[in-house]
Design brief:
- By secondary structure, the protein is α+β, with helices and mostly antiparallel strands.
- The chain has helices spanning 20-42, 82-92, 103-115, and strands at 8-14, 51-57.
- Helix 1 links the parallel strand 1 (8-14) and strand 2.
- The longest helix is centred in the N-terminal third of the chain and has 23 residues, at 20-42.
Length: 116
């Protein structure tokens, strides 16, 4: 732990197995709670997000294009491609193999990704 930036928060979570919307919400709450915890300890509302280790049952592969991956994406490699978004949207919706999501499903997916 010599090279860890302090403060450092460790969280254990179990993400929903059926809904990307719920998984995004759970990750968001986890990160907000980590920040609030550190702000409370430091008595400083201006602190940024602390370094965090989030472990547990993610119930997702966190592939590029998944909405959960938006929280962990390396911005230096750019946004996911349209095909990544469509593939992960179809997977999350449990569409039959070879079936593409509708335009409205893709729009909702992109909106959720951007919110994350």
């Amino acid at each position: 732990l010599e090279n860890v930036n302090w403060p450092f928060v460790v969280s254990s979570i179990h993400l929903d197995a059926t809904s990307e919307v719920k998984r995004v919400g759970q990750i968001g709450r986890c990160l907000r709670r980590a920040r609030a915890f550190i702000q409370h300890l430091a008595n400083d509302d201006d602190l940024c997000f602390p370094s965090s280790l989030i472990a547990g049952d993610m119930n997702t592969e966190i592939n590029r294009g998944s909405c959960v991956s938006a929280y962990f994406a390396d911005e230096s490699i750019g946004a996911p491609k349209d095909v990544d978004m469509a593939t992960e949207c179809a997977s999350s919706l449990r569409l039959f193999p070879g079936t593409s999501p509708s335009e409205s499903q893709i729009e909702e997916w992109i909106q959720l990704y951007n919110e994350a």
